[in-house]
Design a protein that fits this description.
The chain has helices at residues 2-19, 27-46, 51-74, 81-105, 118-181, 183-199, 205-236, 249-266, 285-301, 333-337, 359-370; strands at 245-248, 270-273, 280-283, 308-316, 319-326, 375-379, 385-391. The protein is α+β, with helices and mostly antiparallel strands.
Length: 392
């Protein structure tokens, strides 16, 4: 009886081992095989005195477990060639076992396997063939899986390599921003403040006002750049946490326009809110303010004196489209294509020789996409630009 129990269990163990080729422990199948093996064994106990029935139960047990193995291999999502070969071999063997069980059931005499009947001779021949097929097929199966893993690893390594190259380019760009774009405004602030400190009496009131305006403008742009760098760093390290909630756009527009108005007035640019509708958005308020500040600052930079910048919003189904439009210098298609790429974007001087880092727009894109929106630009060279983005 112990021998019979291990004989039946061996069918379950073989198939479970084959089906766990990818290292995934199939708990449901393990329970199914364990319960099935016990049921077959208990059926042995009930038919212990009937030799033919006991042999038929063994045959059905083999066909049952091998049939499950054939079905699992042939329907597996990962279509390996040798898994199909093993599956077909198991299926044919299961069918043959059912035929053999039917033949033995119809024998009207005591059964002895060692007598060497025709069905038993075929059983031995086919068993030898199946065992050989399973052994060779499973080795080739594992080889096929190993090759597939190597290919996938190579693809992953190549992707990681490209990502590292991109990160390295981003790092170099950020270092250049810190080394050049951040240092340059401080030089202006220090230079003009030193002139005012040491030679204040030599300048007219108008000249002093001009120098103070340069200092104020440099300090303001430096603060914007610093804020962008801090937000970018937090975003890249996963420390930037957004807390979206319902917000009225009109109040945010007014606040940002007031904050940006001094820069616009300095260039004699009119900054207007085009609509007063009470449109609600579901977003993080700090993120929205940061995006609007950057887009308006960018519009001021590339708009000629006495130009106009409009901030507007409209509902589109379950989203809101926000637009910051100007009648400035516009941009070419090549410039648009590289606009949101930190590694390839080249900063352009503004209409009053303002400098920028190119980081603001990249940060805007990342923040908007984190909120489930998208950003794009519509522009023609010499005909202004319109930066648009959507939010829920």
């Amino acid at each position: 009886q112990i021998s019979n129990f291990f004989f039946i269990s061996s069918f379950a163990i073989i198939i479970f081992s084959i089906l766990s080729f990818d290292g995934v422990l199939r708990k449901k199948m393990l329970w199914l095989f364990t319960i099935s093996a016990l049921l077959f064994y208990f059926s042995f106990l009930l038919t212990a005195e009937d030799h033919i029935i006991r042999i038929i139960i063994q045959i059905i047990g083999c066909a049952y477990f091998y049939g499950i193995g054939a079905y699992s291999l042939l329907t597996n999502k990962k279509h390996y060639a040798f898994s199909n070969i093993i599956g077909v071999a198991l299926l044919l063997y299961s069918v043959f076992q059912i035929v053999r069980a039917f033949v033995l059931y119809n024998i009207d005499q005591p059964y002895n396997f060692l007598d060497g009947s025709k069905i038993d001779n075929w059983y031995l021949i086919i068993s030898l063939f199946i065992v050989s097929t399973l052994r060779i097929g499973f080795i080739m199966f594992l080889k096929e899986i190993a090759e597939d893993i190597i290919v996938k690893n190579n693809i992953r390594i190549e992707k990681d390599k490209l990502k590292l190259e991109e990160l390295n380019e981003t790092k170099n760009k950020l270092l250049s921003i810190i080394a050049h774009d951040l240092r340059s405004p401080f030089n202006s602030i220090l230079g003009f403040s030193l002139l005012l400190k040491e030679n204040s009496k030599d300048f007219t009131e108008e000249e002093r006002d001009q120098y103070l305006e340069v200092i104020h403008s440099s300090a303001q742009s430096t603060l914007v750049l610093l804020n962008n760098l801090l937000h970018w760093a937090r975003s890249q390290t996963g420390q930037l946490k957004l807390s979206p909630k319902k917000i009225l756009l009109s109040s945010i527009f007014k606040e940002i326009i007031q904050l940006s108005n001094s820069s616009a007035v300095a260039k004699q640019i009119s900054l207007v809110q085009q609509n007063e509708d009470d449109i609600e958005v579901y977003t993080d308020i700090d993120m929205l303010k940061l995006v609007l500040r950057n887009l308006i600052s960018n519009a001021i930079k590339f708009t000629n004196p006495e130009g106009k910048i409009c901030v507007s919003a409209k509902r589109i189904k379950d989203q809101v489209e926000i637009s910051v439009s100007d009648n400035g210098v516009g941009m070419s298609q090549d410039a648009i294509d590289n606009l949101f790429n930190l590694s390839t974007s080249e900063t352009t001087m503004g209409t009053a020789n303002e400098k920028g880092s190119g980081l603001g727009l990249i940060l805007c894109k990342e923040l908007i996409e984190k909120q489930g929106g998208k950003i794009w630009v519509e522009s023609q060279l010499g005909h202004g630009s319109s930066f648009k983005f959507t939010l829920p």
